[in-house]
Write a structure and sequence with these properties.
alpha/beta, two-stranded antiparallel ribbon
Length: 281
């Protein structure tokens, strides 16, 4: 049940390669930098990308003896919804945010946490191949023809949640579709995707946020577990790195997550203070 407790952020997309895990890790660390207590659960026991990223981070913290924020983390290896809920209650206890990273495939456990999310984040690459996850378009006009099964599932869940929010203290679900890799498509295709996403968002009520462009730096950071917010531990940064960090800050701001009352202002400043030079994408 989605009751008062940690705010549940679920990164979900039934397609792989959309930047789910990378985005989830960076959001987790960004929240930790702002003084929030963050826990994360990886629902893909084979790939374990989020789990391995945070594991690498823990090893780097110990090896370098550095003080950077970290999230508590676990991987789900159970075989029932009850076991998943129990893990969520255990890992999420005494935390402000509980983040779930789901596998890039249709999965019963991923569906379950998606319907329990307080904030559902669906990263999409800017292509109609990925758009097909949430809606189908006409081949000639590129107008939205129908919702996908996944979009219908979330739409029905949000309607039910809205009707029961006051009665059982459940939070309303905020659904955010995050557009990744927007710099790698030509202008006409981008306009078509803009139009289709805007039309579909009006139908089902999700918000649209800009995500991450394709940058090698995100992949390079995986072995160390560091993120773009770990200033002072990344060595000399080029303009592309600074632009990427601004992308991440904008994405976190676009999620509109409410920080806990006790979040430390000093940590918030450390993570989101402007870089020394003004950088434009």
């Amino acid at each position: 049940m989605s009751l008062p407790g940690p705010h549940r952020i679920v990164f979900a997309n039934e397609k792989g390669g959309t930047g789910k895990s990378t985005t989830a890790v960076h959001v987790a660390i960004a929240l930790a930098y702002q003084g929030a207590r963050v826990a994360a659960i990886d629902l893909d026991p084979r790939q374990r990308t989020l789990h391995r990223y945070l594991e690498n981070r823990a090893e780097t913290i110990g090896r370098r003896a550095i003080a950077v924020p970290q999230a508590d983390f676990a991987v789900f290896t159970g075989d029932s919804i009850a076991a998943l809920d129990a893990l969520g209650e255990d890992v999420g206890a005494d935390h402000d945010f509980l983040i779930y990273d789901t596998p890039g495939r249709d999965d019963d456990f991923a569906r379950h946490v998606a319907t329990q999310a307080d904030t559902l984040v669906t990263p999409l690459n800017d292509s109609f191949v990925d758009f097909d996850l949430i809606g189908q378009v006409d081949a000639e006009t590129f107008k939205v023809r129908r919702l996908s099964f996944y979009a219908e599932l979330i739409w029905e869940t949000r309607k039910k949640r809205a009707m029961t929010t006051i009665r059982d203290a459940r939070r309303e679900m905020d659904w955010v579709v995050v557009r990744n890799r927007t710099q790698h498509i030509e202008a006409r295709n981008m306009r078509r995707i803009d139009s289709a996403l805007t039309e579909l968002s009006r139908r089902v009520g999700f918000r649209i946020a800009n995500g991450l462009s394709e940058r090698v730096i995100y992949r390079e950071l995986f072995p160390s577990g560091l993120t773009l917010l770990d200033k002072g531990h990344l060595g000399e940064l080029g303009t592309s790195h600074l632009v990427a960090r601004q992308e991440m800050r904008a994405l976190v701001a676009g999620l509109k997550l409410q920080m806990p009352a006790g979040a430390a202002a000093a940590q918030r400043e450390m993570a989101f203070a402007a870089d020394g030079a003004s950088v434009q994408a």
